[in-house]
Amino acid sequence: MIYSKVFTGLTLSILVFQKVHSLESLDTEINSYEYVTTQTEEDVTNSSIFGALNCATTTDSLSSTKAAEQKYVDFEEVLHKTDNHENIPGILTNYPVTYPYTEKMNLRPLPNNHLLISFIFDMSSEPFYPNKNALDSGQYSHYTVFPKIIKPLLELTSTRQFQLRFTRGYWDSETWGALPYNGFKSGGSGVELWATIEATSKETAYEKWKTLANYLSGHFCASINFIDNSKTSFPQYTFGSFFNGKEERIPLFDQKRENTDLYVLHASLANEPVCTENLTPLIKFLPARGKTGISSYLDGHKVFDSIWHSVSIDVDTFCEREDGQCQYKMEANVDMVIHVPNTLERFENPIPKPVAGDKLKCDLSKPYDIYECFPLSESTDTNFSLSQLFNKTIKGCNNFIKEPTTICVQTTNEWDITLKVIEDGQKDSFFGTPDNCFELVSSKEYDLIIDTHNSQNVTLIDEVPIYVSRSLTGYGQDHGGLRTLLRNPSETPVKIIFYESLPWFMRLYLSTLTVESTDPSINRDTIMESMYYSPAKDREKPAHIEFLLEIPPLTTVTFSYQFDKTLLQFAEYPPDANHGFEIEAAIITIVSPKLYQLRTSTLLLLLSTPDFSMPYNVIIITSTVMGLIFGVMFNLLVKRVVTLEEADKILVERSIKYKLLVLKQHVLRKIGLTS
Amino acid sequence: MGLVETFQRKAAKLGLFPKLIRLLPIFSLITTIISIILLLILPLDGQYRRTYISENALMPSQAYSYFRESEWNILRGYRTQLQSFSNNSNFEDISNQFAQKITTSEERFRTIESWLNEFGVKTSIYRNNATGDTLYGILHAPRGDGTEAMALCVPWKNSNGNLNIGGTALGIALTRYFSRWPIWSKNIVIVFSENPKQALRAWVEAYHTSLDLTGGSIEAAIVLDYPSVNDFFDYTEIHYNGLNGELPNLDLVNIAVSITQHEGMKVSLHNLLKDEVDENNYWSRLKLILLGIKDSTLAGVRKVHGNEAFSGWRIQSITLKACGDSGNIDITTFGRITEAMFRSVNNLLEKFHQSFFFYILLTPKNFVSISSYLPSAVLLSIAYALASINSILNTNISFNSLLAFPMTLVQIVSIHDKTSMSKIQIKNMLFLLVSNPFISILIFTTIFESENFKGLEVFPALISAWKDLNCWSWFILCVSWWPTWLLTVFSTMTTIPIPIVTNDSEDIEIKKDK
C-alpha cells in the first residue's frame, strides 16, 4: 500500500518537458551593473534565452502552468551583497514569478586545512487551513515547490514535524569548535528520526509513527522500517517543547476529539551506513533536481567522501494564531567537512602512493639528505577552487526562486575569495565582495576561487559549551559498564539535558549510578536537578533516561552505571552476530548559556554470541542425554526390583528350554505317563 | 541396560572391581604414557593440517602495500630524531637517575605528541606513577563510526630491555602514512608505552576502565619490536602466546605469517634460530609443539613481548619482532607487514571468530587444532583423576600437575617390611623434594629456560606476572599444588610404625594399605 503510493508520487513528479511559448515575446531589458565586464547586447540576450530554456526543464511541471503569465527577462550575471537584495538591479520583470524556495551554500575554512561546506535548502508549501476541507473553502491548493510526497504523508500520519538525520564521521570539536547550526541539524552516527505526532493516545501515536517510519524508509532507501517499539522512546525534555516552546505554535488539527495531544517520538539506528541512496531522494525533492544551482554539487561521490557528513531533513508546521492558516516548511541541510589537501590530492593521485623523492618537503632545520627527510608540517599556502573540489562548476540559474542562490565564505581577511564567471568564448570575469557572499543570478557557469597564505588563520571557532566522551567499560561477556564524561571548559556553569536510550538487552542497574568529579564536593545530589527514568521491557521498550544536570565551571563530571548483558534468543541475533550490537548515541542538549545540542559517539556492545554451527551439536547432545535419562527413569519406574537369586530363578523360568520341559511334563501328565 | 547389567554382574562375580581399584596407579601411568604417545603422534604426516584463512574478509596481501620508497626517507627522519632521545637516556649513571629518566620520557612524549598532532592524531598521556606513563593517540577513521579500533603498540624498551628505536620510528611513520589513506573503517590507536610488560598492561586496563580518550573496542593489536637502528634486518619473529593459556585467533597468526612470507621474510616462531626455521621434519615439528606448550605455560613469566598485555579483553594480539642486524630485508618491509595486516583487519565486519582459538603450531604454516590434541590433553587429565581416585580409595596420595608426577610415586611406608622401610623413606624424601612446586618449577626452568632465568630469577618473575600482568594461572596452580604437597608430606610423616598387637590385626592393616 505504502509503496504503491510512493511510486505514484514518483511518476507524478517526473518532469515533462514543455516548450515555453512565450519566448518570442520576451521583453529584453538590460540593466548594466557596475561590476559587469563589457558585453554586447545581443550576446546577453542569446545567453538569457538559453538560460530560460534550461530553467524550464528543471523547474517543476507546474511552473509551466503559469508560464503564460511569466515573462522571461534577461538576467545579467550580477553580484550582490546579501543585505541589499531588496532592489536587485539585475532582474527586471514586470511580474516576477517566484516560489517559496531558497538555497544557500556556506563555506567555512576550519583549522588544519579542513573546510566545512554547508548546503541549505528551504521550501514551504502553499498556505492551508487545517480544519477546512479544500472542497469547502473553494480554494485551489497546489504543492508548488514543496515535495509532493511529504504533504500527504504528514496528513496521513498527523505528523506536525519530523526530523530525519543521516550523519557519519567524527566531528573534532576540540579543533573545529561547535557543530554547524549549534548541533541542531546533525544526528548521532547513523540514522536518527524524531517526530511530533498528534494522536489520541500513546498507542495511536506509535501506530502513526510506525507508518511514518515505513514511509520514510521506502522513500529514503534507509532501514528506518527497522524502528519498532524496542527502539522507540518518548523523550520528555530533549525534543519538542521543553526548552524552545514550539508546542505553543502548533495547534491541534483535530479538534473534534477531545483528548488529542502532541506526542514526541524518537528513535535512532546507530551506525546505519549512510550513502548515495539516501541522498538521491533528497535531491529529487529539490525543485532544481540537482541540475542547476548549488544542488548540482550534491554528488554522492563527493559528499560521502568527506571526513564528516550530515544530511538533515526538517519538516515543520507553522500556523498563524489569528486565522489558523498553516504552512508546511521543509529545510534540508547537507553539511560536510573535507580535508582540502587530501581531497585535492585524490584527483591527481587516486591512490595515496608515496610522494616522489624530489617532491618531499623536508624540514631543513633537521638532518636531511637523499635518504633522509623529516617531513614538514602541512603547508598553509592554500589555493583551490570549488570546481577542483567538486570536479565541476556551478550552473547558476533557478530563477524561479524567491532569493537568488547565495554562496558565502565565512572567513578572515587573510583569505582571498573570488567568484569566477565563465562565459562561452569570452574571457572569464572575476569578482570579489567585501563580505565574501555572492549571489548567482544568471545561468552562466560559476566557480569560486579560494586562496590564502595562512590557512590556519580562520574565523574564531565557536566555543563548545561542553566536551563529552562515552565508553564501555568492563571485562567479560556477563556484565559491563557505561561511562560518560562531561567536561565544562568554560567559566560559566552549564545546564544540560542528558538523554540516553539504551536497548533492553543492556539490563541497566540505575542503583549503580555513580558520579565522580574533579571537584570532590560534587556528588549525585548536587548536580542532578531532575531525573527521568523509564525502565526497559524485554523486547518491547528501551530503557530511557533523561537527566537535568548543571555542570559547574571548569569541572569534569563522570557518571557511570553498570549493566548485565542478556542472552538473546536464537533468532534475535542479526546475520552478522559477531559484529556486536550498536548502542545509539546519547544526546546532550545544552540549555544555558546557549542552546546547543551534541551527541556522544555510538558504542559497540558485545554480547555473548553462540557459535551458530553449534545448535546441531547441541540438539544431538541434548537428545542423547534426554534419551539416557528417559531410559533410566523408565526402567526404574516400570521394572520390578528383585534379588539376584530371584532374578536367576525368573530367568531360568523364562528360558525356552524350561518352558519346553514344563510343556513336556504337562503333556506327559495329560496322557498319564507320569505320576 | 541389559548389557550393562550383565557386565556388571560378571564383573561382580569375578571380583574385578577391587582388582581394578588396586591397579589404578598402573592405569594412571598407562594413560599418561598413552597421552604422551598421542602427543608424539601429532607431528606425524597426516595428523596435522595446513593453516588456512578461515575468514574470507581478511584477504591478506591482496592489496598492494605502498609503505616504501620515499616513506623510507621519512622513517629515517623520525629515527634520527628519536636517536637523540636515546642518547639522552644514556646518562643513567648521573647522580639523579630518576629525575633524569622522567624528564626524558616526558620530553620524548611531548615531542612525539607534537609530531602526531601534525597529521591529525588525537593524543593523550595516560599517567601511571607505578608503571610509567603511556602516550597514545587515536587516528579517527574518516566517515567511520568510531566503535572499533586496531592498535599499534611500540614499547620504548623491548622484551630484552633494548631501546625500540626502529619500532618507534616505524610506528610514527606508519601512523603518518595511514593518516593519508581514506580507507580506514576502524580507528587506529597508536600506543607508546615505556615497556611491553606492566606499562602496556596498565594502559590496556585503563583503556577499558578509566581513560577519557577512547576509540572504541580494539579488535586486534600488533606490537612492533625493531630494536636495531639499522635499515636492514634478517628475519621476523612472531610471538602470539597470551597470558593464562590464551591464544589469539588463528586467523590473525595466519595473516601475519602469510603476509610476512609474502614479503619475502622468514618467519620464526618460539625463538627458533634462522637456520632452524625452514626445517620441516618430524623432530622439528615435535620441537615446535613442545616449545609452543612451554611458551604458553610460561607466558607472562618469561620475557614479555607485549602481545600478552592484551589478553583477556577479546583482543587478538601478536608481536612482530625484527631479528638480526644485517640481512637483505629493509625496515619498510617490516612496516608493510603492519600495513597489510591493518588492511586485512580493516576489512573485517565481525570480530575474529571464524578460526580456531585453541591450536598448536607445528611450523608457521601447519597446525593441529583442539580436536587433534584434545585426546592427549584429556588422557593426561584422566591420569590425574585416576591417581586421585586411587589416593582416595587406596588411602594413597594425590597430585595435580605433570611436574607433580613424582608425588604419585611416594609410597606409604609398609609397617611390617622393616628392611625396605628406610629405602622407601629415602625414595619418598627424594620424590617429595622433586615434587615441591617451587623446587620443581626451579628445576624445570633451569633445564629448559636457562638462558632466561638464572638461579632463582624465576620466582620474582612469577610474582611480577601475577602482580603486573594478572597472570593468575600460575597462582592457581601453586595454590592448589602447595597444600596437596603439604598434605602428602604430612601423611608420609605420620606413617610411623605402630606397635603390632596381633597377627590378625596386622593382616588387616596390610590389606587396608594395599
TrEMBL record, chain A:
The reply on keyword Lipid biosynthesis is: no
Q: Cite the entry's keywords alphabetically.
A: Membrane, Signal, Transmembrane, Transmembrane helix
At the highest ranks, the source species' classification is:
Eukaryota, Fungi, Dikarya, Ascomycota, Saccharomycotina
Which Gene Ontology biological process is one annotated for this entry? attachment of GPI anchor to protein
Gene Ontology terms: cellular component = GPI-anchor transamidase complex
Q: Which organism is it from?
A: Arxiozyma heterogenica
**Keyword Transmembrane helix: yes or no?**
yes
Q: Which residues cross the membrane?
A: 616-638
Q: Any idea what this protein is called?
A: GPI transamidase component GPI16
Q: Which Pfam families match?
A: Gpi16
**What are the boundaries of the signal sequence?**
1-22
Automatic annotation (TrEMBL), chain B:
This protein's source sits in the domain of life called Eukaryota
What GO biological process terms does the UniProt entry carry, in alphabetical order?
attachment of GPI anchor to protein
Identify the keywords attached in UniProt to this record, alphabetized: Membrane, Transmembrane, Transmembrane helix
Membrane-spanning residues: 20-42, 373-393, 399-417, 429-448
Q: Name one Pfam family in it.
A: Gaa1
InterPro entries in UniProt: Gaa1
GO cellular component assignments: GPI-anchor transamidase complex
Q: Could you confirm whether the keyword Transmembrane helix appears in this record?
A: yes
Name of the protein in its database record: GPI transamidase component GAA1
